[in-house]
Design brief:
By secondary structure, the chain is mostly helical. 76% of the residues lie in helices and 0% in strands.
Length: 274
């Protein structure tokens, strides 16, 4: 649900004259600082090995920063609904990659949840009507985030979720800051509150994301994240005036139905206490 607030804050920041890269740089800087503070309070686990830290920093710098840049760039070239429709195909790519890499066993229940969620998303959003640039960027972001989730499932093993989240955000922030300087993009003072909202939502979402991946795996976690577009649709109706049509409500209902299907799946043993 926290991830679902991001497009709303981004659109409002764009209205204040923000550019994508510096907006993302501020977002991840704030998120890294918040996560570091939260990490000190909620975890007493020892720091991970240096090799794990480097891998997590690279995961943020290459994986998450790259995926987020593609997504925020797509929002500049196509309507948000079109971008989200294409982007939210990522649970399919994640599940397929999970099967291909044998990180996820084949389960009929998983596919049922995937079909329900995908059907809901197709009902919620219109068919794509935008310039090819935006659609290609959104599709690239979708595939990139699928690789990110699979990599995260491997790299966060043995690392407390709070620590993994800190290193991922810390890896993304400087890369995006340098990219902003090289491209000459800027952020206005009026957009800073929305950048702060992005950072706060990101820090909470990262903690929940890594906690879920460590418990149920990347494929099930991404399907459960299909509540994200439902959140976006509701908030867009409230803050941006987007209409809530019967098709949108029916799609939201299908997406919510994926959650009990996942919960009733094979029970996963909780990780040992750290």
């Amino acid at each position: 649900m926290c991830f679902g607030t991001l497009p709303i804050s981004a659109k409002l920041a764009y209205e204040q004259g923000a550019s994508p890269l510096p907006l993302l740089a501020v977002r991840f800087t704030i998120a890294a600082l918040l996560l570091a503070a939260i990490g000190r309070l909620v975890t007493a686990s020892p720091a991970p090995p240096r090799a794990s830290v480097v891998r997590l920093l690279l995961l943020g710098a290459v994986g998450y920063a790259g995926e987020a840049s593609l997504y925020f760039a797509a929002l500049e070239h196509a309507p948000a609904s079109v971008v989200e429709l294409v982007f939210y195909s990522y649970p399919l790519w994640t599940a397929l990659l999970g099967f291909a890499t044998r990180l996820e066993p084949f389960r009929v229940r998983l596919l049922i949840a995937l079909v329900l969620g995908a059907g809901g998303i197709l009902l919620i959003f219109s068919l794509p009507h935008g310039r090819p640039t935006g659609l290609l960027l959104a599709l690239s972001s979708s595939v990139a985030v699928a690789f990110y989730y699979i990599a995260a499932q491997v790299l966060v093993r043995g690392v407390a979720p709070a620590r993994a989240a800190v290193y991922t955000a810390a890896g993304a922030a400087p890369v995006l800051a340098v990219a902003s300087l090289l491209t000459g993009q800027t952020i206005t003072a009026g957009a800073l509150p929305w950048a702060g909202a992005l950072g706060l939502a990101t820090s909470i979402a990262f903690l929940a994301l890594y906690g879920s991946i460590s418990r149920i795996g990347s494929a099930r976690a991404t399907i459960a994240q299909m509540v994200e577009p439902v959140t976006t649709v509701v908030l867009a109706a409230i803050f941006l005036g987007d209409p809530l049509s019967p098709k949108v409500l029916a799609g939201a209902a299908l997406i919510v139905l994926t959650l009990p299907v996942l919960v009733l799946g094979r029970r996963v043993k909780p990780p040992p206490a750290r």
